[in-house]
Amino acid sequence: MNQIDTSQLVELQNGEVTTTSLQVAIASGKNHKNVLEAIDNIIEDLGSAEKSATLEMFQESTYIHEQNHQSYRMYVLNRDGWTMLMGYFKGKRYTMFRYKYMKQFNAMEAYIKEQEQHSFFIPETVDQQLTREKLAISRQRSVNARSREVRAWAKLTDNSEEVAKAVAPKMLSQLLDIPEVDLLETK
């Protein structure tokens, strides 16, 4: 097998690592016709019992030939489809080919996982941050207003114990966001 550029054997398509029957044919040195035939055989062997699996593994597509600009069929393969197809690539000459493909699938999948982890920690947009800070300021102002109200009631009552007992549960309930009934319960 000739040295063929295997730097880009796989690609990301709709969030899944894929390759194509054409890429496999070019990288392996096989005729695309033979690769298509192998995939058709796999689909036939799996039959209707595994129809949904074959549709996931092998999605029929087309490509435009560079020289004659005609449309030809090909398959888009996910990792499982590629693994099934590799059963048709026997012999020592395909060992390095399979290994390079496997490395690229692994690298792309690791990249996807890394991106998913980073997307969990996406920083807020400026608008989101402003909204969050405005909400926090509004909450703090509300707490401050309640606190001022409690102090005002305390001054109005001249710190009278009777008035404080009558008004305190209501004021503390508002200030602490606790039901007044819970403040009056004795244990």
TrEMBL record:
<protein>
    <submittedName>
        <fullName>Phage regulatory protein</fullName>
    </submittedName>
</protein>
<dbReference type="InterPro" id="IPR014054">
    <property type="entry name" value="Phage_regulatory_Rha"/>
</dbReference>
<dbReference type="Pfam" id="PF09669">
    <property type="entry name" value="Phage_pRha"/>
</dbReference>
